Amino acid sequence: MVAAKTTSVPRSAKFKKYLPLYLMMLPGVIYLIINNYIPMAGLIIAFKDLNFRKGILGSDWIGFANFRYLFATSDALLITRNTVLYNVVFIALNNFLGVTVAILLNDMTALKAKKFYQSAVLLPYLISMVIISYLVFAFLSNDRGFLNRTVLPIFGQQGPSWYTNASLWPPILIFVNAWKNVGYLCVLYLSSILGINKEFYEAASLEGASKWQQIKYITLPLIKPTIIMMVLIMIGKIFYADFGLFYHVPMDSGALYKTTNVIDTYVYRGLLKTGDVGMSSAAGLYQSVVGFILVLTSNLVVRKVSPENALF
Amino acid sequence: MKKGLALLLCLMMTLIGTGLTTVALADEEPVEIVMGFFSLNGVPSDLQMVLDAINEITIPEIGVKLVDPIIDNYGNYHEQLNLILSGNEQLDLFMCWGTYWLPFYTKGQIIELDDLLEEYGQGIIEAVGREWLDAGKAGGHQYGITTNRDLAVTRGFVLLKDICEKYDIDVASIQTLDDLGEVFQIIKDNEPGMIPVSGANGGDKLLDTICTYDSLGDTLGVLMNYGEEPVVVNYFDTDEYEQYVRYFHEWYQKGYVTEEVMTSSDNTNPQMTAGRLFANTSNIKPGFDTKQSLTVQRDVVSVPMVEVNTNSSVVQQIQWYIPVNCDHPDKAMQFLNMMYTDERIVNLLCWGIEGVHYAFTEDGHIDFPEGVTADTSGYNLNMGFAMGNQFLSHIWVGDELTMWDDLKEFNETAIFSCAFGFCWDPEPVKTEVAALNNVLNEYRCGLEWGVLDPDTALPEFREKLHAAGIDKVVEEKQRQLDEWLATKQG
Predict the structure, then answer these.
(1) Which of B259, B432, B443 lies closest to A142 in CB terms?
(2) Can you give the pTM of this predicted structure?
(3) Given A239, A299, B5, B224, which is the most exposed site by the fewest CB atoms within 10 A?
């Protein structure tokens, strides 16, 4: 009895103490419930043969038939491979570049130049993919592109036909993606580097630590939690592909599908004409379930390796 | 001028007439109808003005008031339509393009119109004719009502006239692809910087200008030779397909076609305007040359490559539907009926208000009124093909005054597919169709413009089609077609 009393009193005191925080959380929670949780009821559409006259609940159950087209063909393996491999490269490369650029920017002393570079790396992040696709086209177009018309002739080379050659596209897509997204990650890491107490560096340089040693033993360990968090979030999206990048940038050229077709573009092309709600929900559900499992597993791994950095 | 006066008198008389009938219907609230259609020229700024003018006619006569129509650009419209229909918002009557209506049918979002058409749509039946309306049937019931317009099709090439004259090319003598190849060779040799032929990704490809199949909706299983016999064939496996694909690859190697066709999603007309392109591909109908010359802003001449023909897909391109969302289908059908019978309604929808948006010229054409241009006009929709009975609309300057008669003749002389009125329902094989659409997207554009090498790409394409289940789709299509033929005869 006594024990129960002692535990219950601090708990309510704790609640009172954190009440303002709970209140601050409330709008966000309500938003999440309305926007992210209530619509989950609609997931049943993925298992139904939707007919609007019968209504969502009245439509016939058809089990996993809506999922079949995602696995039924020889393309299924290809699109899964493309989606996952591209994302793995994106996660590794973008985070590496993001951290590097952030550290470089942080150590710049000329304030104006620092501001300029910071905006310059962020700018591509704000440009729409459709516009980027035309920037790329300006470089790669066969008979009018900058590369084939101006750059390669200088070296006496004849340019390839970019938009019919699938094997050229993995590096192009990886480059475009990094160019577009590194700026955002860089700003994120920069802010977490700025949060590091300056005294660490002062003490280190007094002890004679080189710049490299400072980065290796102070900066990197201290922004590790941010890096891990970003990577985990990105892993959750590993089954989603940036539709703009894979659809618009290759200009939807059929000859490039081997290296540019990903789950999202496959679903779009497959259902554009039939507009089947059930099948598109199936694709969405499949992507999020796999993403969810991957986040859980990678978090589990992180917890095993360094428990203090795990998300949950 | 006389015609204008007469029309004005008519209008005044009806206005007086309205005054009388309003009294009779005054205690009945008009039913509000929301219609939906896409626009190729944005949403007109004077839309409300035109709606008011229409309502002045429809409220007293059939008790219908048009409110807040759903109008969007072609690109967004069908997506929006999907949202409205799924969200059960008010929409009473809508038009849509091509095969977009099929999912609405399979998901039960549009209603059967058989009884409504008999009861309120006699004017439609009379104007269009039952034989054409058959194209809007699915599963034995009427779902779509086609507009009265060019209901047949021929396809071919559109050439720049001044260049043809420059090299003394006798366009009338161009009959075959070989003839055309010779012309393209002349362009290639003499006009550096000008591409002989090109087109937009998604538009008619080289092969589309010459093929004669009835696509039966989606080209996954077709009827050969204008739909001569009810035998469904996998076209991509035929010798004909291989022959054409090889032929066009030769054109590509000779430089008549460039890789640009793989990436261009834009209309190629501006390139012809700029003189960068000699020819593109298009559907052709009477009056096409004059109209296309206006669009391209240069004189063009068309070369049809196939016979005038028609099938369900051609007619289904523009149809009107009534969705389940509609609370007063009878009123929607009554209004639709007016779009096929009432000259005033048709012209208001097509051209706007006389004196404000258009005016009659002396020879009976219509044109912009003085001081108004295409850019300043508050109602420049120019969508006659979609607004019910196009044959009731006035004829714009530049078109022949006999245009509607020419079009009627064009329609009547068309070769009919034996599957006319059959509607393919892909629902039972939708898994295969989704996979096949990806395969088609991957290869068709490249092969049918001749860009991809048929030696490697064609076997790949065929193999992938089989792997994705085209045989199953063809089989199912044949089954549905046989069933339809049986009920038609029985």
Answers:
(1) B259
(2) 0.82
(3) B5
Instruction: For chain B, say whether A266 makes contact (Cβ under 8 Å).
Output: yes
Q: Is residue B236 part of a domain?
A: yes
Q: Which residues contact B10 (CB under 8 A, 6 or more apart)?
A: B344
> What is the pLDDT of chain B when averaged over all its residues?
88
> Of B303, B289, B301, B270, which Cα lies nearest the Cα of B165?
B301
Averaged pLDDT for residues A30-42: 90
Q: Which of 1.10.3720.10, 3.30.720.210, 1.10.10.10, 3.40.630.30 would CATH assign to domain A79-129+170-309?
A: 1.10.3720.10
Give the pLDDT confidence score for residue B15 in this predicted structure. 44
Whether A142 and B433 lie within 8 Å, measured CB to CB? no
Q: Is the dihedral of CA A191, A197, A199, A200 positive or negative?
A: negative
Instruction: State pLDDT tens for residues B265-296.
Output: 677 888 888 888 999 998 898 888 888 888 88
Parent domain of B111: 2-150+314-412
Of A163, A255, A275, the CB nearest to B103: A275
ipTM over 0.90: no
B290 inside 8 A of chain A by CB: no
Please give the backbone phi and psi of residue B4, each rounded to the nearest 5 degrees, phi first: -60, -45
Instruction: For residue A127, report the phi and psi dihedrals to the nearest 5 degrees.
Output: -90, 140
- The residue length of chain B stands at 490
Question: CA nearest A251 in B: which residue?
Answer: B263
Mean per-residue pLDDT for B340-359?
93
What the block records as the tokens of A178 is: 């990094």
Q: Identify whether B136 is part of a domain.
A: yes
Same domain membership, residue B172 and residue B287? yes
Contact A269 B464 (CB under 8 A): no
B191 and B69 within one domain = no
Extents of the domains making up chain A: 79-129+170-309
CB contact under 8 A, A273 and B99: yes
Does A163 sit within 8 Å of B108, measured CB to CB? no
Q: Does B102 touch chain A (CB under 8 A)?
A: yes
